[in-house]
Fold RNA methyltransferase.
Amino acid sequence: MSGFRRGGFRGRKRFYRDNFAPGGSKTDPLNINIELLDDPEAEKKRLGILEPEEVPSKRRKSDKDDKKDEKKTGKSPYKKKFQKNHHGSPKKKAPPLTKEQKDAAEFRKNKTEYFNRKYRYGNFDRYYGVRLNPGESDKRLTVFDKQWFEHKQILDIGCNVGFLTLSIAKDFSPRRILGIDIDEHLIGVARKNIRHYCDHETEVAGKFPASFGVQFGTISQRTEAPRSFSTKFPDNIWFKKENYVMENDEMLDMIQPEFDVILALSITKWIHLNWGDDGMRRFFKRAFAQLHPGGRLIIEPQAFETYRKRAKMSEELKTNYSKIEFKPDDFEMYLIETIGFESVDKLGVSGAKSKGFERPIDVYLKPVRPKTDAIPLGYI
């Protein structure tokens, strides 16, 4: 008995009364004779011994069944499922926006459009507030050689409100430095900032040093020619509104050598997005032509990966961005082999308050004599 295990209830064969026909006789206990009749089904029906009808088993539909149903009906079985959330209850329609919510959304939209329209050239009026800590000097000055600027003619393109331009004018003693920007408001702020860089003994008349009245005449009379010239700060600096990118290459024929150093710091991305590959090349051609032999072009190019975010500011910028083939990585080869610069000195990356402003600075040297027999732009 120890080796015998009685099957459990689940293992037993179940018997039902419908497995056997009721009644019968001693000679025919199983009513086999019924099968020999002409119509056994009728007799079974009369006696009530018909076998029960087979009931199809209920099972869960599989993915294959759903696909078969979809082929037959042409409708996806998942359509209703997607109309419900993850709790299984029907999705609720979002309530209509109130008037205050609509006004707030419209205000945000108009504010974004105004921002993109105003600052499409990278002319941010709080640029230095983001780049520098309060009271901190621009760290790019530490990588510059003072001899490049001392008693030289300097041009700073995209000077913004003039913090770097003013620092060079005061600390590096250039003969003359001109800061230009496409934004007239920034130029106005830069001119007013001159007085903040003056020493206490510098005489100030109104918003500008008193010497400007003698050197430039009345500030409002912009057409009046300068009356005298001084290389001492603040007489060696001025700011002017100007777009440096010319409309076409034919205008480059009018350019003559004028400067010993041209600064183009953190502006190549904005030139590229607004004027495309042609505008970028034209910018480099003009800078080369406007440098004296032996002069330097100092650029701080932004990486191409940073273009995409600002390209969304307008449809025009987005279109120009999609057509760019002349990438920042191509600048060095173009400036040396095509434009005619002699060499490049890589100063590395200068520090900044934000990591996004840590960009490499390259200095391109214009040869004293042209590389070819033909005299290119910028040589006379």
Summary: The beta strands are 153-157, 176-181, 204-205, 208-209, 237-241, 259-265, 291-300, 343-349, 360-365. The radius of gyration is 43 Å.
